[in-house]
Amino acid sequence: MKLHKTNLAEQAYSALRDMLLGGERFAPGDKISVEDLARQLGVSRSPVWQAIARLEADGIVEVRPRQGVFFVGFDLEGLMEIMETREVLEGASARLAAERASAGQVAELRASVERQRAAIQGGALDDYAAEAARFHSLMAQAAGNAVMVKIIERLWARAKAMCIRPGARPALLDERVDEHARMVEAIAHRDPDAAEAEIRAHIRRIARGVAAV
Fold first, then answer.
1. Which of 37, 36, 75, 82 is nearest to 58 (CA)?
2. What digits encode the pLDDT tens for the residues 89-99?
3. Which domain CATH number covers 131?
4. What is the pLDDT of residue 73?
5. Per the domain annotation, does 12 fall within a domain?
6. Could you tell me if 123 and 180 lie in one domain?
7. Is residue 2 part of a domain?
């Protein structure tokens, strides 16, 4: 994929983030060649290095002096800390969403749940994963707190990067979508206690599944 000359650093960041989190080319811990990436994207190394700096701040890559750039490696202890943090932040976000979400936001959350179900039924697991990530972002946005949105999205991306296993497929997808649906209905019924409890239990189940692998 070649990039256009406008805002190359931003385009490089988006392209590299999608490439890394897509799980098709890199596995956690892999070394990343900046030269190869620049050649593939059709740009100089400068915008690629700018993108790498942002990805390092996101916790998706590590720049090691005199060694190179590496996709973040799997670290169970670090991952559990991320999941604990997600549980607290997304729980608080769900409470706010139950108080603040508009009817349009609730409708979009419900539509996202249906898209997730359709993706699973059609065997489009990559589409499901993308929509599930979008769902959690929509949940955060419904809280009306832009700072929370940025932090939650960054934590989600870092956790996903650490969990990528090429060829692996997530389990219990139907149950996960049912959990998403219950979160939405708690928000729709303006029940902050239920909304927080549902999303915290959801993240704990995911964390237990990751730890058991």
1. 82
2. 999 999 999 99
3. 1.20.120.530
4. 84
5. yes
6. yes
7. no
Tell me the C-alpha distance between 22 and 25, whole Å: 8
Query: pLDDT tens digits for 57-115?
Result: 998 999 999 999 999 888 889 999 999 999 999 999 999 999 999 999 999 999 999 99
CATH of residue 52's domain is: 1.10.10.10
Q: What is the pTM of this model?
A: 0.82
Beta bridge partners of 32: 69
Residue 18 binned pLDDT confidence (cut-offs 50, 70, 90): confident
111 shares a domain with 45? no
Q: What angle do CA 105, 107, 109 make, to 5 degrees?
A: 70
> Which residue range(s) make up the domain with 15?
8-71
Same domain, 63 and 80: no
Q: What backbone torsions phi and psi does residue 69 show, to the nearest 5 degrees?
A: -110, 135
Residue 28 — very low, low, confident or very high, per pLDDT cuts 50/70/90?
confident
* Two structure tokens written together for 19: 């490439």
DSSP characters over the chain: -PPPSTTHHHHHHHHHHHHHHH-SS--TT-EE-HHHHHHHHTS-HHHHHHHHHHHHHHTSEEEETTTEEEEPPP-HHHHHHHHHHHHHHHHHHHHHHHHH--HHHHHHHHHHHHHHHHHHHTT-HHHHHHHHHHHHHHHHHHTT-HHHHHHHHHHHHHHHHHH--TT---S-HHHHHHHHHHHHHHHHTT-HHHHHHHHHHHHHHHHHHHHH-
